[in-house]
Amino acid sequence: MSVFKHRLGHPPEVVRSWRTRARAALRAGAHSPFYVFAANPLVQRLADFEGLPQHCPWRWWLSAKTQPLPALWRWWRSRGGIEVVSEFEFRGAVAAGYGADQILVNGPAKQRWLPAFDLPNGRVNFDSPREMAALLTQARQQRWRVGLRVRTPGEVDAEHPEWSNQFGFEPDEIAPALRQLARQGLVAETVHFHLRTNLPDAQILESALNSVVVLCRQTGWAPRYLDVGGGLPPAHTADHGGNRFDRRFSRAAYARALNRAARALPSVEEVWLEHGRSVSAGAGVLVVQVLDVKERQGRRLLICDGGRTLNALVSVWEEHELLVLEPRRGRRVPTAVHGPTCMAFDCLGRRLLPASVRPGDHLLWFEAGAYHLPWETRFSHGLAEVWWDDESGLQRVRAAETFERFASAWEDPGPKAERKR
Ligand SMILES: Cc1ncc(COP(=O)(O)O)c(C=O)c1O
After folding, report:
1. Does domain 12-36+282-407 have CATH number 1.10.10.10?
2. In angstroms, rounded to a whole number, what is the distance separating the alpha carbons of residues 358 and 354?
3. Does the beta carbon of 92 lie inside 6 Å of ligand 1?
4. How many angstroms separate the alpha carbon of residue 280 from the centre of ligand 1?
5. Which of 108, 276, 344, 377 is least crowded, fewest Cβ atoms below 10 Å from its Cβ?
C-alpha cells in the first residue's frame, strides 16, 4: 500500500461536526481509542432516498448486524423495524423494545436457536429447505409470516466465482417449498434476496430482480413483499487505488429497477430494504491517540492506541478519511498510522500528514459506523469506549473494557486434582 492521496469528498460542515463531537467527548472524559456514533448523519442518509419515485411503499429495516449498537436500535424503533440474523441480535432487538411485528428474522440455520423463542406472528425468512422443515411446525403454531430467501444467479463468492455463495434456496427448490408451506396452511409472503455488499451499480440488482420476477411467474408465487436486502455502497469510501465504491451507483437507477420489478409483480404491496453500510457507515468515527512517532527513511510511523486490528478491520480493503483533530499545519509528509498490536498488518492507512503531528494528538477515522463494532477484536487489548449522540445529546454508552471485566468472562477449571474429585 503506497501513500493514499485521493480525496474522499466530505463537505466541510460534515468534517466540522465530527471534530466537534470528538472534542466534546474528550472534554467529557473520553479515553481513546473510542468510537463516536451519531443519529443525525443517518437521518441525512435516509433523506437521500426521499423524493425517489416509489411504485409501492418502501419499508426500511435496520440491519442489526451492521451496527450492533443498542442506543441506535432504541433510537431507530419509532422509525422502522429491525432485521436480525442471530439469537443475540434477536434478543437485543427484544430488549430494545421491538415487538414481533417489527423484527424480521433472517440468516442461515435458524433452527439452531429460534425454537427456544415464542414468536407469535413473527416475520421469518427461511434460508433453506432443511431449516424450513425443522421450523415448519413452530411456524404454523405461532402463525409466522414467512418468506423465502432465493439465491439469484449472480450470487457467487467474489474471490472464487466458480463457487456459489451459501445463502438461500436454489430456484428449483422454491416450488417444492411453496407446496410444503401450503400443506401447513402457510404462504410465503416475502420473496427475499441479498446480493452482497458494496454493489458497484444498479444493473446487478436489476438482473437479480429480473430473475426473481421470472421465478415468481414460473412457480405461480404471488408475494406481498419484495425484500431486496442491502448492499448499496457507502459514500466517501474508496478502494486502495482511490476508486470510490459509489462512483457508478445511481440511486435513480436503483429506484427504477425496484419500481420495474414491483410493477412486474402485481401482488407486491411493499418493497423492503435492509440497507446497512450505505446508511450507517457515515454515522460514526473512530478516534485514536498517537502514542509514539518513529522516523524512518524520510517517512513517519505513528504508533496509536487503536487501529486496524482492534477497531477498523474494513481498512484491509477500504480507504476512509483520516484527519488530525488538533490544528497541525505545515509540511505534509508520508505517514503510516499504526495500531498498538504486534502485527505489521496493523496499519489504518498511509497518508500525507503534517510533520508536526506529535504524541498526544488524536486522529479521526471516518465512516466507522458500519462493520466496525462487529469486527472489533481483543488482540492484546480490551474493547474500546463508545459514545452516542442523538437528540438527547452526546453520552458514553459503553466503557472501555477493563482487565477485570475481560478476566471475569473466563472460568477457572481449578487444579487437576480438584477436578478429579
Ligand atoms: C440479509 C442481509 N441484509 C442486509 C445486509 C446489509 O448489507 P449492507 O451493509 O451491505 O447494506 C446484509 C449484509 O450482509 C445481509 O446479509
Report:
1. no
2. 10
3. no
4. 12
5. 344
